[in-house]
Amino acid sequence: MKLLFVATLALLALSYLDQVDSSAYDKIVSHSRIRARTQGPNVCALQQVMGTKKKYFSTCRNWYKGSICGKKCGVEICIECFYIHVVYDLLHPPVAPIDTVYKTLDLVKADITKQYSDISRIKEEIDGSGTYTMFVPSDDAWNQLDGVRITCFLNVNNELYKTLHYHMVNKRLLTKDLKNDMTLESIYNNLGLYINHYSNGIVTVNCARIINANQMATNGVVHVIDRVVSAVGNTIKELINNHEELGSLSAAFNVESSLLEKLGEPGHYTLFAPTNEAFDKVDREVIERVLGDKNVVQALLKYHLLSSVQCSEAIMAGSVYETMEGSTIEIGCDGDSLTVNGIKMVLKKDIVTKNGVIHLIDQVLMPDSAKQVTELIGGSQSTFSDMVYELGLSAAMRPETQYTLLAPLNGVMSMDQRLLKIILENHILKLKVTLSELYNGQLLETLGGKFLRVFVYRTAVCIENACMVRGSKEGSNGALHLLTSLIKLPTTTVYEMLEADGRFTVFLSLMEMAGLTDLLRQEGGYTVFAPTDDAFDGLTEEDLTLLTSDMNALRTILLYHFSNGVFINGGLEGGVTNLLKTIQGNNLQVMSVNNSIQVNSVNVPGNDLMASNGVVHVVKTLLYPGDLPVGREDLLHLLKKLIKYIKIKFVSGFTYKEIPLTFFSEF
Q1: pTM, whole model, 2 decimals?
Q2: Over 60: is that where the pLDDT of 391 sits?
């Protein structure tokens, strides 16, 4: 009775400590208890993956999603969270008696492990004094072994004894003590047991999942696992060099030997290892090109490596992981199968090594950084790709040449082929320029010898009139950027454009009277909201004389239509008010709505007219700062005739300040 009392106190104390310092596993179990609370105080909810034997403690995400590994979860299964004998008494709390590790094997229904404990004479240890953690294979785990291995266990001297000792540690370790990337010394020759404790509550030992944990015993604790684990002796490096199916991979690693050496050192890695057959599927020319460039080989190999251990049993849904190459892959599952980037390609999973895990795959994963730029072009840019080849521009894109493709999306290239060739030459840059290397005001030299301007905005990067869309890629010999439209290189200044257009004669006349014409001609980058002649309908000679009689007033009005910097529609943040400070000093309120622009709530009927020194947006009304008053009644009357979208304030005696002409180049 005294022993039972002490054991019960020990269990309560350990349970309390477990709650104080709970692990991801313990939190999942607690959630599963909540799901099954109507079934009793010690019942947990499990969800079974349809078509498999996999059962998982219910998580909040999986509960509401109703699927694990892409498969529907079966009906909820309720089990005891801890296999204890509970005596219910209305007057007294339930008592939870515990026993030795050996006798706990009965409670967890590990009949085969108990049988093998008898045969191997381990019973004397686990039924006696001491403190043990035993990772107990379930009966299903033993039954998964082939007959040859079972025969070996039963007939070879001490083999079963060694195997069971490898599943044991000489201390009590609850799940809260099993930390991620921990290595435990087993009783068998102190060989390592490799622990991973994942954020989704999965705990693995040599990639075997703990399916029932923390079964307390008087001399330790029992954790039930879903497979029999074997002693680990090799590093990833050693396995690559010695595995008969990885000869081609070994040859690739020998090109980049420093990476192979790293995989022989302590660490925590996952390697998706393409087999010899996987390499045979890749075009021989491609393999030779890759193996001929040390940097490309390194990129290729690192794309198959993760700096963490990802056992298959821990994958419950598709998750994105960063590879050692720097880009990402998605590891998921489909029933019992492991998937990479959504494809079933894993031939053999969970080959455990001393510094990680290997999954054999039947495809070579090719990162963008190991591809040539022409191999990066996708279906949405196929028209551009076809035209480049048809027009004879592909000669400039040799494998040894560094370049950048600016590829418009399909459906934007219908025009005369002679003109198209000239335009497409301006979509190939002479150097490799990645997205991170672009900056505002940068000039990019094209294959055609022209220079393209780069405009960087809060939420967009644009090259001339064309803005980039998501999907820029970096290849081994260059970069690819996707554009919304063809780039149209401007050939005229703002002044030349407005003059040739013919709709802006009054605006140009006023700019000349104000001495501001050079602003339209000089080098730089301006955004101009240019009012058409329609904006000045009804303006008489008398009105014109009045408007030009006060030079400060005229310059104030005109310079309110100019902003420093080139702001095109694609660069404006959609759905919000963009404040553009004008040369005059007040702000313009600009919005991009449904591929069109509004300025100060006025519709802009024509936008993104690109010039060599800026961009023009067309307006049909004169613009005026809403918070700037007018001090003369005659001028107020005139402005009211021209400006209808706001109510202009009148402040008697107000005068316009002189605006310094520091924006002219000669200043």
Answers
A1: 0.78
A2: no
